[in-house]
Design goal:
Elements (H helix, E strand, L loop, with lengths): L1 H17 L1 E4 L2 E4 H14 L4 E2 L8 E7 L2 E7 L19 E3 L18
Parallel strand pairs: 3-4, 5-6
Antiparallel strand pairs: 1-2, 4-5
Amino acid sequence: MYFIFFCNEMNETKMKLKKIIPLKGAQIPQFEADILQELENQLKKEFTLVHEVKGDTTMGFTVENKRVTGIGLQDCGLTSLPDTIGNLKSLQTLLLDGNQLTTLPESIANLSS
């Protein structure tokens, strides 16, 4: 029974990796949209698709080649980042100035840029 559940869970994860969905005018993988939506729910604010993440970008994100490449969370009152943030493998810019972060999730080490 556990094996069947595990296989179903793996198939669901693979589908999220492959499935491209629309979000705020961009096309990105569902799992990346889920991460952005998790942040939106946490902050009770909505992201905007922007051309560039700058020092004053509040709740903005950039996309290249259907992957999230930048997130601006300037002065959002953020106290923590979701553990899943490290799954954004194409993330090059993450602006967090003006927040109340005391720790970062271990998964942030998965980001190479």
